[in-house]
């Protein structure tokens, strides 16, 4: 029979024989879960006189918060930036597949695209009605069907032509209209949007940063030729993230370090953390640069895959939005060039590579894929940790940080 009838009829699961990542260290303890939340065992024992209905032996594995990928363009043949009749079906496929890599939540990312990709206009009784494509992807917490969706990451088109990378130049936009008007004309709506990446040197960007922040949308700086002063102004207006540090921005220079300088800037407002994405796939960033960033500002490092359609598929030609992409080994290039265009890495691969390349602790590597992205999005009160009362989204790993099982709301959704 279910325990604790005075509080809840829901059964309690006790995860035993494990090391739990909590308070920045691995602790040998049990994890208790009820109704999708992590329980405080002291309250359970002493206030409710409760007990476990089910025990799960973790085989001396590591229990860490589920990984959160805030920049993923697609995978397994699905391109989030491609118009499709079944957008939600493609999203569901990726959400299901990334469970095996420990990802329990993600932000599907759209690269610079023509307006009709974000929204389309159709005639209904001779009246033009804007039909938003993105809301077909609903924000949810995930479950057996796949990882949860935290909101869309819109990367472009308000970015620099010089540092556009794999973003097609013909679809880049200015902010000449002022304020959010330009964004709404391109995107159609900001519903279900979690992150917007833009270049802070574009005229009008600072007001947009402020307005996005007021709406609770995370603003990221990227694909930019901004100097440090421009980047600092954007942060003072509310920007909190840097899109794939070192990539698609001016290189570090000792007289003006550019956006990279935000990692050690003294102009960042008090009680504000600057986070920065790192594609730790062994391709996008030299291990020495990875170590420099981590040692300069470890609390802000957020691992992202920046994965594209080709993730999980054989080498060959694929797409990223409006561009053709060629996979050569572990490299993804814009077809016919040597311009990198996302990665084919999975999140667990990035965690392992980051830990090995940086020499950081297992705890730090795991938090870069869980706690830090949750803090970035302002959801660490419910995700990204294994604190009492938070969502029971977690991953079971071995000492080599290979995923053995993934759980959402305390239920196993994938096992090796």
Automatic annotation (TrEMBL):
Task: Please cite one Gene Ontology biological process associated with this protein.
Answer: N-acetylneuraminate catabolic process
Q: Which key words tag this protein in UniProt?
A: Carbohydrate metabolism, Hydrolase, Metal-binding
Q: How is the cofactor bound?
A: Binds 1 divalent metal cation per subunit.
Residue intervals of the Amidohydrolase-related domain: 62-412
**Reported cofactor(s):** a divalent metal cation
CDD domains (alphabetical): NagA
Residues at which substrate binds: 166, 247-248, 255, 284, 340-342
Keyword Hydrolase carried by entry: yes
Catalysed conversion reaction: N-acetyl-D-glucosamine 6-phosphate + H2O = D-glucosamine 6-phosphate + acetate
In alphabetical order, the GO MF annotations are: metal ion binding; N-acetylglucosamine-6-phosphate deacetylase activity
Cite the binding residues for Zn(2+): 155, 223, 244
So where's the catalytic machinery, residue-wise?
Answer: 306
First-level EC class: hydrolase
- Name the pathway: Amino-sugar metabolism; N-acetylneuraminate degradation
Enzyme Commission designation: 3.5.1.25
The family note in this entry says: Belongs to the metallo-dependent hydrolases superfamily. NagA family.
Protein name as it appears in the record: N-acetylglucosamine-6-phosphate deacetylase
State the species of origin. Answer: Scleropages formosus (Asian bonytongue)
Identify the coding gene.
Answer: AMDHD2
């Amino acid at each position: 029979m279910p325990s604790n009838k005075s509080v809840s009829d829901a059964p309690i699961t006790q995860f035993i024989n494990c090391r739990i990542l909590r308070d920045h260290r691995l602790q040998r303890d049990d994890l208790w879960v009820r109704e999708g939340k992590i329980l405080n065992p002291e309250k359970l024992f002493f206030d409710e006189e409760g007990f476990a209905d089910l025990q799960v032996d973790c085989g001396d594995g590591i229990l860490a918060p589920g990984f959160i990928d805030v920049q993923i363009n697609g995978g397994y043949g699905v391109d989030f930036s491609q118009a499709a009749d079944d957008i939600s079906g493609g999203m569901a496929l990726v959400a299901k597949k990334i469970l095996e890599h420990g990802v329990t939540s993600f932000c599907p990312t759209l690269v610079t695209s023509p307006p009709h990709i974000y929204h389309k206009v159709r005639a209904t009784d001779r009246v033009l009605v804007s039909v938003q494509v993105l809301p077909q992807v609903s924000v949810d917490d995930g479950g057996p069907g796949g990882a949860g969706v935290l909101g869309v990451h819109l990367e472009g088109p308000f970015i620099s032509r010089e540092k556009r990378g794999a973003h097609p130049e013909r679809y880049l936009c200015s902010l000449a209209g002022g304020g959010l008007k330009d964004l709404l004309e391109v995107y159609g709506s900001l519903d279900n949007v979690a992150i917007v990446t833009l270049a802070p040197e574009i005229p009008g960007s600072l007001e947009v940063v402020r307005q996005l922040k007021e709406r609770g949308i995370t603003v990221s700086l990227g694909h930019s030729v901004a100097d440090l002063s421009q980047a600092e102004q954007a942060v003072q207006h509310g920007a909190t993230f840097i899109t794939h540090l070192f990539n698609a921005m001016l290189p570090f220079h000792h007289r003006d370090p550019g956006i990279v300088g935000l990692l050690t800037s003294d102009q960042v407002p008090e009680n504000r953390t600057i986070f920065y994405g790192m594609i730790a796939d062994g391709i996008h960033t030299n291990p020495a640069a990875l170590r420099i960033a981590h040692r300069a500002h470890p609390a802000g490092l957020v691992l992202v895959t920046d994965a594209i359609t080709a993730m999980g598929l054989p080498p060959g030609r694929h797409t990223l939005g409006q561009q053709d992409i060629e996979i050569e080994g572990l490299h993804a290039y814009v077809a016919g060039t040597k311009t990198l265009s996302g990665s084919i890495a999975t999140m667990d691969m990035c965690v392992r590579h980051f830990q090995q390349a940086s020499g950081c602790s297992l705890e730090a590597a795991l938090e870069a894929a869980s706690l830090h992205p949750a803090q970035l999005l302002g959801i660490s009160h419910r995700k990204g940790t294994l604190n009492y009362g938070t969502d029971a989204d977690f991953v079971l790993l071995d000492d080599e940080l290979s995923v053995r099982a993934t759980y959402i709301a305390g239920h196993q959704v994938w096992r090796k």
